[in-house]
Amino acid sequence: MKESDIVIDDEHPAAAPEYMTNGRTRVNFGPPPPKVAVELHIDEDVLSWFQRREPEYYKTLINVALREYYNELRQYYDPPLDK
Q1: Could you state, in order of their start, the residue ranges of all structural domains in the chain?
Q2: Of 32, 65, 30, nearest to 47 (Cα)?
C-alpha cells in the first residue's frame, strides 16, 4: 500500500495519536485512561530488560506490557457487562 492509496475523509477520518496504543487504533474506547502513580517492586532482571530496550520510556513500555496482559485476560475473568 502506498501513501497515495490512503483515503482520509468524513467517513474515514485520520486517527488522532491519543487514540493509538502500541500502533493500534483504539476504536470506540475514547481517550486512554488517566495514569496513577504507584510504588511497584519489580524483579531487577525484568526492570533492567525494560530499561535496556527503552531507557527514556521504559515505564511506558512496562505499562504497554501490562495493558496487553490485562486486555488478554480480562475476557476470561471479568463478568459480562450485560448482567
Answers
A1: 3-77
A2: 65
**What DSSP string describes 25-65?**
E-TTS-SPPPP--------HHHHHHHHHH-TTTHHHHHHHH
* Torsion angle of the four alpha carbons 45, 22, 17, 34, in this order, in degrees rounded to the nearest 10: -60
State the residue for C-alpha cell 500502533. Answer: 23
* Ordered per-residue pLDDT tens for the chain, 83 residues: 677 777 777 777 776 655 555 555 555 566 778 889 999 999 999 999 999 998 999 999 999 999 889 888 888 887 665 54
CA distance linking residue 42 with residue 38, whole number of Å = 12
C-alpha torsion sign, points 55, 69, 29, 2: positive
Q: What is the pTM of this model?
A: 0.57
Residue with C-alpha cell 495493558? 67
User: All 3 cell numbers of residue 16?
Assistant: 488522532
